[in-house]
Amino acid sequence: MVKYVSGSTGEEFNLSGNASRVRLKEAGFYDYSWEPDVVTRRSGNQVTTFRKKEKEYKLGIDFFGGRSDRAETLRRFFELTEKDILANEPGRLYLNDQYIECFITEGDVSDQAEQYTYVQKEVTVFAPNPFWTVEKDFSYLRKWSETSSVYLEYKYDFDYDYSQTQKGIDYLNNDHFSACDFRMRIYGPVVNPSIIINGHLYAVYTTIEQKEYLTISSRDNTVIRTKVDGTLVDEYNNREKEQRIFEKIPSGNLTVSWSGNFGFDVTVLQERSEPEWN
Predict the structure, then answer these.
(1) What is the rounded distance in angstroms from the CA atom of residue 218 to the CA atom of residue 23?
(2) Distance between CA 141 and CA 256 in Å, rounded?
(3) Which domain of life is it from (predicted)?
(4) Hey, CA dihedral for 153, 157, 163, 166, is it positive or negative?
C-alpha cells in the first residue's frame, strides 16, 4: 500500500490498492546516497564523516475513470499536496508501515489528446530529511502502590503485564541496527518526572497536572507540555541539562526505570536510507 498523508490536514490519498482509481507506475524509492566530508592529505584523502542531503523522487501516476471522476481525483490530489506547500507542513508518503516526510513540489501532465480513460502525471517528491521511518511504540503504565490503588486515566488503553511486581522497572527492545530518535509522552499528574533508559537520564523539572501531558521530541529538539485546554507550554529551559535529554535510544533490549508514580509512552523512530525490503 502506497499513500500520501497530508501534514496540514491529516487527510489521506491512496496511490495503490484495488479500491483506488489511481496506479503508481514508478517511484525509485530505493535510491539513496551519502556524501563524504573529505580532508585532503599529502597522500590521498581522509573521510571525516558522511552527510545526507535532501532528495527528490520522481513518481509516475496514472489516474483512471470517466472524465468527471478523473477530474475530481486530480483536483483532490493537487489541493491536498498544495495545502502542505502553502502551510510549510510536510506530508508523509507511506510504503506500507514505513514513511518519509516530504512535499510534492512539481507536477507534469502528459499529452491527453489520445488518452480517453486515464491521465498520466509525473510528480516530484522533495524529501528534506530523506530517511524512511518505522515507528515502534512502547507504553509504561503508572504502577499500583500500597498507598494508592487508583490508576491514571488515559485517553487510550494499553496492554500491560500485571504479573510484574517490581515498581518502576521495565524494558524497551529497540530491534533496529542503530540508535534511534524518539518521542516520549509523559502523563500527569507528576512533579519533576525522570526516566532512566539504559543508564541515561531523561528528566524535566516542571509540574504536569492531571490530564496534561508532556512531549519530548529528539528529532525536533522540543519539550512541550500540553494543557487540558490544548494550550502548548515550552518546557525546553526546564529540561535536564547535565545529561542530554535528546540522546538517541540505543539498539538492544534496554532497562527502563522510573518512580512508577506516572505513566508514559516512548515511540522509537527507526530510520533507514531505503525502505525495508519485503
Answers:
(1) 36
(2) 12
(3) Bacteria
(4) negative
What is the C-alpha to C-alpha distance for residues 89 and 83, in angstroms, rounded to an integer? 8
Q: Which residue has 541496527 as its cell numbers?
A: 177
In terms of Cβ atoms closer than 10 Å to its own Cβ (0-12, 13-18, 19+), residue 249 is buried
Q: Write the CA distances from 35 to 48, 81, 100, 130, integer angstroms.
A: 11, 29, 20, 13
Would the CA dihedral through 20, 57, 77, 11 be positive or negative? positive
Burial of 63 (0-12, 13-18, 19+ CB in 10 A): buried
Per the listing, cell 512533579 goes with: 191
pTM for the complete prediction?
0.85
Count Cβ atoms within 10 A of the Cβ of residue 23 and give its class: 0-12 exposed, 13-18 middle, 19 or more buried.
Answer: middle
Per-residue pLDDT for the chain (278 aa), expressed as one digit of tens each? 899 999 999 999 999 876 668 888 878 899 999 999 999 988 889 999 999 999 999 999 999 888 888 889 999 999 999 999 999 999 999 999 999 999 999 999 876 655 668 889 999 999 999 999 999 999 999 985 544 444 444 444 444 443 344 578 999 999 999 999 999 999 999 999 999 999 999 999 999 999 999 999 999 999 999 999 999 999 999 999 999 999 999 999 999 999 999 999 999 999 999 999 98
Radius of gyration for the chain, computed over Cα atoms and rounded to the nearest angstrom: 23
Instruction: Enter the C-alpha cell of residue 14.
Output: 491512496
Dihedral sign from CA coordinates of 96, 99, 102, 103: positive
Other Cβ atoms closer than 10 A to 205: 14
Residue 269, CA distances (Å) to 99, 223, 272, 275 in order:
11, 17, 10, 14
